[in-house]
Write a structure and sequence with these properties.
The chain is mainly alpha-helical. Helices cover 73% and strands 0% of the residues.
Length: 62
Amino acid sequence: MPTGFSGCGEWRRCEAGRILQSKAGVVNKDYTAQKSFLAKIDKGELPLADAKAKARELAAVK
């Protein structure tokens, strides 16, 4: 279960919501960007230390 969720049911509702949106043709740009970011880390295109620094930078902008 991903961290940051209060319980199993909440995570399942989010996942179900993404599935329904996907089937309806709704694209969540944040989710797509997150998947792309993680894929770059997995492929080694972006070093983990740089990824962590970028994540901290983006979180501080809010």
